[in-house]
Amino acid sequence: MKIAVIGAGPAGLCALKSCLDENFSCDVFEKSGLIGGVWNYNEKTGLDEFGIPIHNSVYTDLWTNLPTDLMQFENFPFKCPVSFVRQPDVLKYINDYADAFNLRSHIQFYKHVEEIRPLPNNRWKISIRDLKSMGQELVIKEYDAVIICVGNFNKPLIPTFKGLDKFKGTVKHSYTYRKPDPYKNRKVLIVGKGPSGSDITGLVSKVAEKVVLSHRSPLREYAKFSENVKIKPVIAEFKENSVLFVDGTEEDITDVLLCTGYAFDYPFLTNECGIEVEDNYVKYLYKQIINAKHPTMAILGIPHTTFLLIMFGIQMRFFIAYLKGQFTASKETMIEDAINYEKHRKDEGGSLLKIKKEYYDDLSDTAKIQNIPPVYDKLFRHVLEVGPMKYQENYTILNDEEFIITKLH
Ligand SMILES: Cc1cc2nc3c(=O)[nH]c(=O)nc-3n(C[C@H](O)[C@H](O)[C@H](O)COP(=O)(O)OP(=O)(O)OC[C@H]3O[C@@H](n4cnc5c(N)ncnc54)[C@H](O)[C@@H]3O)c2cc1C
């Protein structure tokens, strides 16, 4: 079995190791010169030296939003005296993983995958541009299976706001936020209270005159920011130098920072691949992994409100079990299952990206593969429940079921 993996971020590395463990032949194509994906800090924004959009979006002083126990590859402990760490610690851990399993020799750097096309015999034709040859060389290769690991945090999702075109200040997405310095003594509107919105609000409020944080969900009382942060509801309209909220209040602002999330984007997949993105939902993926129309393709990391690095492990076990014929499902069954999943989650009113323990149980039951230990889900629920108070706690996993909390001062 000859497998191509696209991307050498955490998902690509996990996919590569899983394939090598099965003695599959595996080539990884990575457009940058580094492993680690978004975890590489890059001061630059916009286009890279080859004219390709810069992938990295981590910023200075980023704290992880999950404890290290939930940010580790399976069977490779993230050893650290504290539970919440900074971006360089994560990058080092990822590099240690690659070195521990000699993964680098299987990765081809500066190889930009430009097109993936299905062949009639369930194989794949992949067009790869060698960026180092100044973009001249386009290599075509064929593989038995392909695993897409290009990350899902690199195309900014920018909602439409009434009057934003009239606003005279700067407007940026968190994708291009690197440091708080440009916001020194400014009046900054931050939109969105997800992990990035909350974290960046804390960082920008240290230098800005004021920060106005607009968000959709009700604010939990323990989400405390400094006194120059005002919490506001949803935006009604922008004016030239201010913003109006749905509660009728108005704030003067000089800059807008949109922490409004990301859109799924796989520009290299031809229409024949059968993958469609609708309402920011990736359709026709069996169990959110396997391309139901061409099941020798998998995409890792679609449900992303979870513990991703652990999830990559079980997603790979699932795909490999399918490739090895350890379970079967017809294309029709896969498509029906994918459609039902979408309907069920929408009826429930739940985000398609937020997954529950049942998702992992389903993967394990369907493919008869090893499930993830329940303690991860328990710790994840706890971290969500305590919100920002998590940064005052350390966690120790005792066994597959239990963890303990140590309060920090
Ligand atoms: C600001 C920010 C903060 C985050 N904080 C956390 C956190 O605290 N905890 C957590 O668990 N997760 C966090 N995440 C999520 C993070 O994305 C994951 O931890 C992890 O990096 C996902 O790995 P990945 O391999 O799927 O994607 P990525 O890390 O995005 O890697 C994808 C790789 O694919 C390559 N690539 C893309 N397109 C092509 C192509 N066409 N050809 C060749 N190569 C290509 C890219 O260059 C990149 O190296 C954060 C994300 C962001 C943006």
Q: What ligands can be seen in this structure?
A: flavin-adenine dinucleotide
CATH classification class of the largest domain: Alpha Beta
User: Can you tell me the CATH superfamily of the largest domain?
Assistant: FAD/NAD(P)-binding domain
CATH topology of the largest domain: the name is: FAD/NAD(P)-binding domain
Number of helices: 7
What characteristic shape results from the CA principal axes? globular
As a whole number of angstroms, the C-alpha radius of gyration is: 22 Å
Report the structural category. Answer: alpha/beta
Transmembrane segments: 297-314
Family: Belongs to the FMO family.
Protein name: Flavin-containing monooxygenase
Keywords: FAD, Flavoprotein, Membrane, Monooxygenase, NADP, Oxidoreductase, Transmembrane, Transmembrane helix
